[in-house]
Each structure stands twice: as structure tokens, then as C-alpha cells.
Amino acid sequence: MIPSNFDYQRAQSVDDALTKLAASGGTGKVIAGGHSLVPMMKLRLHEPTTLIDIARIGELSGIREQDGLIEIGANTVHHDVATSSLLRNNCPIIAETAGMIGDPQVRNRGTLGGSLAHADPAADYPAALLALDAQIQLQGPSGTREVAATDFFQGLFTVDLADNEIITAVRFTPVQVAAYAKLYQRASRFAIVGVAAALVINQGSMLRKPTIRSSRIGLTGAASHALRLTSVEEAVAGQAATAEAMAQAAQGAGAKIDDINADLHASEAYRRAMIQVFTTRALQGALARLPA
Amino acid sequence: MNPVSRRAFLKSSVAVTAATTFPRTRLSAAGQEPDGVPPAAPQTTISLRVNSERHTLEVEDRWTLVELLRDHLQLTGTKVGCDRGECGACTVHLDGMPVYSCSQLAVWADGREVTTVEGLADGVHLDPLQQAFIDGDGPQCGFCTSGQLMSAKAVVMTNPNPTEDEVRQGMAGNICRCSNYNRYVAAVMSRPPQQASRLDPLATVGVSHPRIDARERVTGLAQYTGDVAVPDMLYARVIRSPHPHARITRIDTTHALEMPGVHVVLTRQQCDVTWSSGDSHNPRYLFNNPVRFVGDPVAAVAAIDRHTAEAALKVIDVDYEPLDFVLDHEEALLSGIVEVQPGGNLSPRRDGERLPEIYQRGDLDVGFAASDVIVEETYVSKHHNNAQMEPRSAVAQWTGDQLTLWSPTQGISNTRRDMARDLDIPPERVRVICQYMGGGFGNKNQNQDSDLIAAVLAREAGRPVKLELTRKEDFLGVHGRWPTTQHYKIGASRDGTLQALQLRGYSGMGPHRKSSGGIAGIELFRCPNVRREVSPVYTNMTVAANFRGPAYPQGVWGIESVMDQLAHELAIDPLDFHLHNLTREYNDETPYTSWSLRECITEGADRFDWANRWRQPNGRTDRVARGVGMAIGMFAARLGRSSAVLRLEQNHLWLHIGVTDIGTATKTAMAQIAAEAMDMNLTDVTVVWGDTDQCPYSVGESGSRTTTHTGHAIIQAAEDLKRQIAALNGALGDRPLIAQATPEPTIEGMARYASAAHFVEIEVDTELGGIAVMQYLAMHESGRIINPLTAESQIKGGVTMGIGMALHEELVYDRATGVPVNPGYYGAKVMTHLDAPEIEVHFIEPIDTFGPYSAKNVGEPPVIPVVAAIGNAVFNATGRRIKELPMTRTRVVEALA
Ligand SMILES: Cc1cc2nc3c(=O)[nH]c(=O)nc-3n(C[C@H](O)[C@H](O)[C@H](O)COP(=O)(O)OP(=O)(O)OC[C@H]3O[C@@H](n4cnc5c(N)ncnc54)[C@H](O)[C@@H]3O)c2cc1C
Ligand code: FES
Ligand code: FES
Question: B91 at the A interface (CB within 8 A)?
């Protein structure tokens, strides 16, 4: 429970961080909130020789709205996302997700960028970002690039992020009719199964009930990495915007995924059953956000 | 923002700017180490404010914030319970927000404001929350209290009138293993505690009183073993076996010994000290070969600081030759299975015979022949870790041939005896000090291997040594509740009368026999034909031994489940079935000094409105199924030898007793008994405790014995003192008067037990398999309650622990490798604020003159009926019985499928 030696460097800007990262010759790591990295270093699962602190880079923090897009800086801590009135009003699912992470101490230090880079299969944000079709902004020695959430999460603790890159922000179009539903692990509060659903609605009229035009559904906790529940997305399309129709569409959710996790928190069979339960709850939760 | 000046690879002397404290260990080592000083780690200069005081200091980059606070700024009120962001004991405020100081680097605090528990009070004026924690009995052992306070403070800073749920959410990151969650939440909600004695209170006894040491526990001033620092102290770490069973073929310590800053490396080759309390049947060395469980100590290092000690561990080469292993206690008895200990896996009886422990009366064949209904069922309980908040630690210092040991023990007298025996020195050369300790629940009764390892390292090094186990080491290297398999066959006649009762049980003790391994509970029932056969078995799981209520919680779960089933098959209300079959004599033969079990059941049932709430299970599967359950329990309230010394000086009473107060408010209860016996005010009594040089023998704080044993000694000494006073005819003067007593009261031919009946309503979410406790009523008889306030906290905590055991706590093993996969708070799913329901507590208080002021015992009984009550409620709700613990969501869903 004692980390090996490392040299601490504080980056003043993204460019500075990238320079320091390059100079470390592959043995450096950036640190933001440290709530994933420090425990790993204590267990010596990571032994970086240089630790580059990006937590004070101002340009990486904050929540902004511009041209109809919302951008959350990578350094923004979960607490700030959970309590942001901009997000609560315009895109409640993301605030809701952040508020369900861990406990206050973790939310006060853990960051969005850290969570995405760490890519714990039970992390919460990935589901919401898939449902929001978010774009992840990266910066590296050769400039910036943008990766869609769908392409970003690739495998167990594996994302589309090179060793010499850092995540700078996440950008998405706000969605009102979206919700996150999660089965908590006891104690740690990580997701055994977490489902985020965002719906596009065909408004009803006097003569026609509202229906679901399309949806995006992100699943976390269940497999080696977060992924979209495309078969449910298809099943939902065109359905009436009712709780029963949502439960119907969620039937068999995740049945096609073949690498469902089995661990001390839940068996594979249990997780499979929960994917359906929580897909239903997320879809119904989203519907409940339909303006009256 | 402050610019950072970095000076990497400084020489080891530490540059510290004005007005700050500095790293003790390093400074003392600078330039004077015979064996050199480890190369300096990279450092950074930071400026921060801690509790409003500005510090500019050089910190090593690798230090965590808690390391800076505790080791270098001597702010030891902040505790380390897990060192990995799970338990919350280390919570401090960073710029006003609660954070885990174990998961922050110290350098991050640069330019920021840190507030610790020491900064809450304004001089002598406590923060209102601290006062609320005192009045509402927040701290039991107190080890989690600083963290609870810091989280609570953050809640009320942002929201002065929080709801109960907001308080729980705000404190969700703070585990309390004493499980005093109800008290903490009530204190934050400013809800005053209610409990009062049912008997007419005496002057002091029977009156609710905040703990006499509560102030120390809420201000961070209480000194726990890990807070002790002595000059020139070295820091120790232990290597443990990664294999469940292996022969060590080679240990190479050369590289470690060559490392600058390393003083001693110990292995089995240099150390043949045995830890006799670790195994009553087989020699158990401090370092064993073969190693017999994952976590078995292999070697230990003492070095100049914790980082060097850790680095040294990494360069010790150990070659293991893996051996076959066995985890399951029934499998271990099959022929052809590897022997965990020489001679076989059935642990021998006291008489040396390798036979199960057998209790028998009547004739089973006759009983079953007379039975109309027979139930045959098997129940399986799991290894369940004590997980006390304070990980095992020890500080050992030799002055010549005199050992001073600071240890978080449940019994200083026992520990002194054990240390002397194991180190082969006279007891008078051992001094054991334990001022405050962070819980044990039965796993700190005797001396610990950590005590011995620290003592031997210190003797070899010629310098004091501190050893602190990590949370993982504490989970694996110490012990938990023994897992059991219980095969029952029970018969009754149609009228609901028990005719035959058979238990064949197996307990997995791990590779060492520390405790009985018993499976208790059948003695609660009247039955003419009984046979109980229990086999304590050696396995390669982690060691199992006493944990609160030792043999009962798992045994009562089994027997009470089977009884519930039998009542069901006979179509009798389980309450009536109990009342019909209770025994008024222990094992149907030994009379009780007083017996209130029946009253516990009937009064509990009335309060719970059992008659209107219990319904035959209907097996319906609503999405949310509600059900009620009940179960009973008893626990011995023994009497025995203990001592007390009373010193009256200028109208003030000094009470010298060898207790340590493990969170049970023993010191307060003892002071109340002394005040009562001497007819004095409680404020005129000072307790001197926790130091074998200042206190006489006291029975260890285990088996819920202290109140009765040591309480009697106090009363007897007080009688002597009062006689002395009377003899002086009022001419007391300044002369100190001293009285001491070591009574050994007995209850010849009788049994003395506390009893309990619990009633619970639960909801089962049949979709998720989740079980939620909706209402919990604990009806207890523990003789006269000395301090209703703190006694109720004990019950609440015990019940809450029992709920964890019932629903989710377990040390899980990978069967293929024999490696436990979830040591730690999160992995083993220890109860949190979010899991803990409100527990309603009532006491029946009979007069039982065998106890001091009629007191019996409080600590262990509350955990005993819980698992059974919940299991029976699950059956009532769903028509299904879950026969393997814990009743996890997965198991519930499977059972309902
Ligand atoms: C007790 C506890 C409970 C938790 N519960 C939950 C939970 O319920 N749900 C949940 O989702 N998470 C949970 N977490 C994880 C938590 O959210 C972490 O804080 C988060 O995953 C990591 O963020 P961080 O800022 O602390 O990252 P760090 O620990 O600083 O870094 C993590 C990794 O990300 C890299 N990194 C950090 N920032 C960047 C960046 N901008 N660009 C590139 N790489 C970067 C680091 O190099 C490192 O490899 C929990 C953690 C703890 C300790
Ligand atoms: S010690 Fe920091 S959370 Fe447990
Ligand atoms: S008082 Fe909370 S752990 Fe003991």
C-alpha cells in the first residue's frame, strides 16, 4: 500500500503537460483526481517514474455551452457535473450520472477525464456518453482529434487514447428525454449494470399518441467495456411512448452480448437478467422526463 | 497559483522552512546511520494552511496527504482504515470539501486549506456537531469518528437542515464497523437519544450518561496505537504467502539487507518464536514453513521509514513449492486429502482424541419414532471478517530487557501474559499499553502475531519498531468468523412438541485452532432426545476464530431456520411454536439464575404487533414481497476473576482497572459502578486504564465479561474502602486510602445468560433479489442496564453487523487457486450508512443479584438472532428459504426462479 518512487511535476497548460509527458519517455503518467491512479500505484499495478499533475490546468476545467453544444472539461470533478444547473436544466442525465458515482469524497476529487481514461468496466460515465453520442476531445503531440464515444471504449481498461495524448473535454448535444438507471455494487457504488437511455420523440397530436422516433442506449458494468444496446434501440423505434412499450422493447436486452462479466458482485445469469430490468428502468426514466 | 519549486534527489536531510514540524524518522536518521541512509526521494516545496495555520515545507512527492498530516505534522486525529479510498476514516476537508486524504498526494494540497478534526473546535469550544456526537453517543471505538465528523460537517455546511436521507448520502463514504450508523445520523439530525432504564435508576447506575472519554474521541486527541511515535522508531512490513499451502524452498534476503536504511530482516531461519495464542493445538511460529494460508507471514523487515521497508519487501526473493490445498471443511475430512496439519484435518478434542465434539441426551431413534413431522435441512455459513476499523498495529520498545508494547488489544493483562510466555521472559518485564483501540469484536483478545513481530524486530534492531498492517493483511492475516456446514434433522409430534434434535456440523478453522469452532443454538430448545456432533476442521482458508457471539450467529441461523420450517410444516405460528418449545433450563438440565427469554418474545411480539402482521407465507410473487420473521438468542453472562484498585484522595476517586474499552463504553460503565458503590458523583471519579504498569488484572474484553467480572471487583473494593472511611470516623484528612479486590464469584450449578428476541419486517424486490429491512425490533434482556445510552448503541451496532452477515458480507475464495479475492471493505461488502436501517431497541431488566447491580452482558447478544430473523422473514415473504449465506441478490433471484 505504498507507491514506488516517482517524480512529481505540475503542468501549467495542456501543451506543458504534453511536453512533460513526451519528455518522460513513456514512463510518465498524468494524474487528475488520483482516485483511480493513487490506489493502483499503492498496489504497484502502476509504477510511473514521473507523475504529471494536470489538475490545475484551468483550460481543462468547467462546463460551457456554445452553439447548442455542451462541453465539459476533462478536469471537471464529478461533484461539479452533478450540481451544475446548466446540466440539470439542459441535460439532466449527465448530472444524474455524476451524482450516482461513488460517495461525496470521490465525487469531490474524481474527474471526468480520469474516469474515461481509466475505463473501468463498471464506471458510470461511459453509458451516459454513449447515450448522448458524445465526442471525446483529445490532444497529442500532433494536435487535437475527436473520437465518438461509440469508438472510444474498446476493451477492458482500454480506450482509444495514446500514451502521449490527454483527454481535454467531452462535447455533446444536450438531450432532455434521457435517464440513467443503475444497479449499485454494495459499498463501492460502482455499477453492476448501468443503462443510459436517450430518446427522440415524435410529438403526439390530438389524434396521434407520441411515439419514439429513435434512441441511443448505453450499457456499462455488464461487459468488458461500455457498449450500445443496438437491438433494443431498434426495437424501441416506432413504439408508443408508454412505459409498457418500453418494457416490451427491453425484452431480451443484451442477449446477444457474449462476454457478460461474472465476478464476485454478480453471476453472468444475474447480470443478464439485470440488463433487461435496468434497460426498462432507463427507458421509462427517460420517458418520465418528457415535458408534460 | 503558487509556483512550484522542485528539488529532486535532495540529500536526505530535510529542509524545512520556519515554524513547521518535520519528518521525525528521517531527521533522526540523517548522517548517523551505521548502515547508511536510503537515497532521497524526489521532493517538492509546498505551502498550505492546515487548520488555519500556514506551513511551508518540503514534502516527498510520494507522500499522501494523510502521511503528511499524521507522520509529519503530528495531526493523528485523522485515521487510516484502508488507505485506499474505501472507509472514510481519513476524511479531511480540502478547501472546504470532504476528501479522502489517503488518496491525495500531499503535494496537491499546495496552496490549499486543509481542515482536520483537530481544526473543528474553536479552542476549548467544541463544534456543535462534536457536542452532538458526545450527547448522542456517536463514537463507539471512535476510530471512524473523525472521518464521520468531517463528512457530517460538510453536510451541514451546505445544508443546515438536511433530511435523514441527505445525511446518509453525505456520509455514505464513511464506514463504521461498530455500526453506530443510527447514532451518527441522529446526532447530525439533532435528534436526542431516548433510552431510559425501566427499573428505577439508582443514583448513577441505570442513568444514561455520555461516555466519560467521548471528548477525546470526537476531538482526535484519543491516542490509538498507530498514533504512538517514539524517538528512533523503525517501521516494519511483513511479507505474506501468496499461496494457500506451500513449502518455502529458499528465501534470499541479501538484497534487502544491503539496502541502505534496512535494519533487520527476519525469517523462520532466524526466528523460532512461537505464537501460542495463535493455535492451541499445534506449534505456530511467527513465520511458518510450510505456509498454510494466503496471508501466512513469511518474513518481516524493519527499516528507517515505511517507504524503505516496503522497498525492501520487494527485493526479498522467496521460492515456494506449492502443495495441494483444501478449502472446504467437509472435503478436508475425506480420505486422500492433503493434511493441513500433521495427524489429520479433524482438529483434536481437548483430551487429544481426534473425534468430533459430541453432546448427547436421550435417544434419537426414540425421538424420531415419536415424530409426526421430520425436517432435514443443511445450512452453510461463510467466513465473515471482523473487519474492525483499526487495522492491527503495534509499537514495541525495549529498554534493556524490559519491553513496552503499545497494542490495540482487547485485554492488556492477557497480552502481557502471552508476550512474556512467547518471548520467554518474566511477565513483570512486559508492559502493555492500550489507551484507545479501534474495535476488535473478538480478534484482539490475546496477544497478536503483529505484537510479537514488532517486539522481535525491535529486540534485534535495538530500536523501537512500529508495525501497521494494511487492511488487506488484516483481513487475511488475522481472522474472521468460522464458516460452517450444519446438517439438521429435527422431529416433532403433531401438537408441535419437539421430539428429536440432531445436528452434525463442520466448522472450517483455517490451518490453526484459535477458538472452539462450536455451533451453538440447539440448547435454546426443550427436547428429550438430542445429539450434537461438531467437527472443527483444518483447512487452507484464512484462520477463523472468535467474532462477536462466536458460535451463535451461524448456529442460531441454522437451528432457528429449521424451527421456522418445522412450525410451517406443522401449520403453527412460529411465535407459538417458540413459546411451546423453549427450555427453561440450559440444555434442559441446568437452571438459569434468571430467565427472561419468554418475556423477550412476548413483549417483542406485542410491540411489533406480530399477531396482526404475521401471515402464512403464500408463495405469491409480487414484484415487491413483504414478510416478517423472528428469531431468538442467548449468550452466557459468566462470572469470574478480575481485579480493581480504588484510591481515594482528597475526595476524588481514582479507579485503576485493566480495561481498554474496545468501544463498549466499559470505562464509563465501570466509573458508574464505582460512583454508585462509593455514593459519589461520576464527575469525582477518574478511571486509570489501559496500562499494565498502572492497572491490576482485568479479564479481557471478550465474551462480554468485563461488566460482570470487573464490576464485581469494583464493588468489593468499594466496600473495603467504605469500611476504611467509616473506621476513620469522618477524619479523612489528606491521607490517600486504597482498597483492592480480586473476587471470584460463582454461580454454582446454575447458568447465567442474557437473552434476546428479534422481529423484522423485510421487503424482497423479486426482480433484483434485493432484501431491504423495513422495520427491526430488538428486544433484549441483559440484566440491569448500567448505561442505557451506550447499551442501546451496542445493540444497534450488533444488529447492523448481523444484517451484513445475513445479506452480503463474505470473504470469497477462488476455488481453483485458493486465493481469497475480496479482502477489504468494498470487496467484502461491509455495511455502510446506506445499508443500515433504524434499529429499535428495548430492554427487559430483571433483578439478577449475581451480577454487579444485577448487570449481565450486552456486547455479543445483539448479533445472534439477526441472520435467522431475516432468513425467516425472507421465507415468510417469498415461500423460499435461502440456505447458504450471505443472502445476496444473486442467490435470492436464483431461489425465486
Ligand atoms: C471509493 C471509490 C468509489 C468509486 N465509485 C465509482 C463509481 O461508483 N462510479 C464510477 O464511475 N467511478 C467510481 N470511482 C472511480 C472515480 O470516479 C475515479 O475518480 C475516476 O474513475 C478517475 O478519475 P480521477 O480524476 O481520479 O483519475 P486519476 O486517478 O487521476 O487517473 C486515472 C487514469 O486516468 C488518466 N488520466 C487522468 N486524467 C486524464 C486526462 N485528462 N487525459 C488522459 N488521461 C488521464 C491517468 O493517467 C490514470 O491512468 C470510484 C473511486 C473510488 C476511489
Ligand atoms: S483510509 Fe482513506 S478511505 Fe480508508
Ligand atoms: S465507532 Fe465507528 S468504527 Fe468504531
Answer: yes
Peptide bond into B886 cis (omega under 30): yes
The residue range of the domain holding B29 is 1-205+212-220
Question: Per mean pLDDT, which range of A209-223, B198-212, B540-554 is the poorest?
Answer: B198-212
Query: Which residues in chain A have their CB less than 8 angstroms from residue B826's CB?
Result: 185, 187-188
Contact B170 A56 (CB under 8 A): no
A207 domain-assigned? yes
User: The cell 446477444 sits on which residue?
Assistant: A256
The pairing of beta strand A143-148 with beta strand A135-140: antiparallel
Residues of chain B in contact with residue A7, where contact means CB-CB under 8 angstroms, are 6, 8, 42, 61
Number of domains in chain B: 4
Cβ distance A270 to B769 less than 8 Å, yes or no, reads yes
Residue pLDDT, tens place only, B764-802 = 999 999 999 999 999 999 999 999 999 999 999 999 999
A42-92 pLDDT tens trace: 988 999 999 999 999 999 999 999 999 999 999 999 999 999 999 999 999
Å from CA of B81 to ligand 2 middle = 5
Band of residue B625 on the pLDDT scale cut at 50, 70, 90: very high
Domains contained in chain A, number: 3
Sign of the torsion formed by the C-alpha atoms of B440, B444, B450 and B451: positive
Q: Which of residues 421-460 of B touch A (CB under 8 A)?
A: none
Q: What is the pLDDT of residue B703?
A: 66
Question: CA geometry: angle at B860 spanning B856 and B866, to 5°?
Answer: 120
B191 and B148 in a single domain? The answer is yes
A102 CA closest ligand 1 atom index: 5
| Amino acid at the residue A52 | I
pLDDT, average across residues B680-685: 97
**End-to-end CA distance of chain B, in Å?**
60
Give the domain range for residue A138: 58-172
Ligand 1 atom with minimal separation from the A113 CA: 41
Q: Which atom number of ligand 1 is nearest to the Cα of residue A188? A: 3
The ipTM is 0.96
Looking at the structure, tell me whether residues A74 and A150 fall in a common domain.
Answer: yes
Among A10, A31, A103, beta carbon nearest to B173: A103
Does A198 lie in the same domain as A161? no
- Identify whether the C-beta of residue A124 lies closer than 8 Å to the C-beta of residue A97: yes
Domain annotation covers residue B848: yes
- Tell me, in angstroms, the distance from the centre of ligand 2 to residue B103's CA: 8
Answer yes or no: pTM beyond 0.90: yes
